[in-house]
Description:
Elements: H1 4-24, E1 36-42, H2 49-57, H3 59-64, E2 68-74, H4 78-87, E3 92-95, H5 97-105, E4 110-119, E5 122-125, E6 141-144, H6 150-162, E7 177-180, H7 186-192, E8 197-200, H8 204-210, E9 214-217, E10 229-236, H9 237-242, H10 244-263, H11 265-280, H12 286-294, E11 296-298, H13 304-316
Parallel strand pairs: 1-2, 1-3, 6-7, 6-8
Antiparallel strand pairs: 3-10, 4-10, 4-11, 5-8, 5-9
Amino acid sequence: MLDLKKWWLGAFMLGIITLLAACGGNTDHAEGGDKEKMVIGYFPNIDHAPAMVARENGYYEEKLGDDIELEYITFPDGGTFMAALKSGEIDAGLVGPGPVLNNFSNGADVKVLAGASSGGTVVVASEKSGVESVEDMAGKTFITPGIGCTHDVQFETYLQQLGNDELASSRIGGSLHHVTGNPASYPAMFESGKVDLAAVPEPWASILVDNGAKVIISTEEIAYGESLPNTVLVANNKLTEEKPELAAKLLEAHDESVAFINDNPEKAKKIAIDSIKDLTNQEMDAKIVAQAMSRVTYTTKVNEAVLKEFGNSSYELEFLKEAPEFDGLVADQE
């Protein structure tokens, strides 16, 4: 069973780490002597393992060269990541497609360079919720990392496809109450009874299940479960248009990292465990991480048609005010 005091500490530490990193990220990219700075962002989630592996194995440094000074910032959700990307606080990194599509449709200068992972989103219910199946969800409270985030859209699209108006967020006339929060805090929120359900990425889904939660909607069942790129490599247009050679080298490092994960799953698992421990002050059980990574496919491929369909779902769920147009979002795939 999970030590809740440690989880609260982990959630607190993650917030402090993110805040301190963000403060450091405000540095002018021209600082650092003759070196040019590049700032990369990612989350302490299993589907962001390509960034963890690339950082640990030195792939970014190797590909970008000695003239580039690298800095890393971690984020709790896609909204804060995209705000940092748009402001120039970070140059590139890994994030879910939901925030990318939402921001692109509102005029953000961003480019999807590649996929990073697919799958991994799971909807679980707490032991105290009384939820044993989807039919029991009416009137319950669910949590996601952000409003309109990838996992939120997947869950709400799944509910929409059921054709039961009651099984929808109260935001669009249903009975489910939606709240948001850092996934590291979900075990404590389940224990306190503040939330009943979570649409959550790995490893947090496996951790919740290990702590007694029940899987209600699996990765295979949820909307876009295995076809949607759950995490993508993105960059702002300042990098892709003004310094395409650096964007290309960043992509090479990313490709090498994804290949490493698929060729060396045990080593990748250890890197993920160590990285998440550094970021959250929590050491994940190897069996939990193995279960989490089994739900995720690491691939650089991006199915642009699925991304557009996913974006249309965001519009139908009223996360987007206008019908989206996504031409030019995805870089040409070789």
